[in-house]
Amino acid sequence: MSALLPIAVGVRDLTKRYDQVEAIRGVTFAVAAGEIFGLLGPNGSGKTTTLECILGLRRPDAGAITLDGVDAIAQPERARRRVGAQLQAAALQDKITPRQALKLFAAFYRAPAGIDELIGRFALAAKADAPFDSLSSGQRQRLFLALAFVNRPQVLVLDEPTAGLDPQARRKLHQIIAGVRAAGQTVLLSTHDLAEAHHLCDRIGILDGGRLIAVARPADLIAGGATPPRVAVKTARPLTAAQVGALAAVVNCQPREDGWLLGTTDAGRTIVALARLLEAEENPLLDLQIERPSLEDVFIELTGRAWSPPAPEDE
Length: 315
What we know:
Helix content: 25-40%
Number of strands: 14
Radius of gyration: 24 Å
CATH class of the domain at 7-82 and 153-223: Alpha Beta
Distance between the termini: 28 Å
Shape: elongated
């Protein structure tokens, strides 16, 4: 994060306990204006609790929060005027239409965004006057995003915004979120989708067990990891463990149903050695792919355990 950019969201030493469970433990991070910052973690890691504290929906036991320069704990009403939010638990009456919902929310603010502007921006024109219960999952998510923009916020907080969406709706929502950044607004989102975090976020913070264990750009997190690149190979005739283990620069090998996955310190040297071996054996190469380390590899390195697969509902 550039030191020249103003801080849109500041969180310092945030702590929240539920009875004997410490949901978040001394979490500290800052989000620059115009940045997409992702909180990444498995279910129960503290993502939703952190966002709820930032939004004033829960009062932290300790710590400080600022939103666009305003102390969100000491001046919650003033801070809320600077933020829009889309939460997992969002719901509307079955028969209310997007246009009616937007008009209702607009009535709460002195200078709201234009209703027709929001309907157009979030591609809701075709369903603007249709009942809520007739909207698809993607259309509902776009409506909730539109509602988050009614007060013209500088900071947008999104909790699992693409959960449960089909690939086409997910791509559309990604385009909208990227457009928010292009307009100079700030996005703070939570996700347990590793690919989404890598693709969408300028920086991510990894939460695990209520602690923030890393903050950096996705590419920097991966580059700083110890996991070597891997070469996935499939041949006409199976190779033995001794053959692949003896290839140049190979540090580990894992059998796959249709071949091998080779961990290597130098993918180029390994591929050259593999080509020579296959030529000498007259064993045709059917497929070869280089797999770079991923955010999942980083998480395993940092925590010592496997990444939890996405679940239908988060924490």
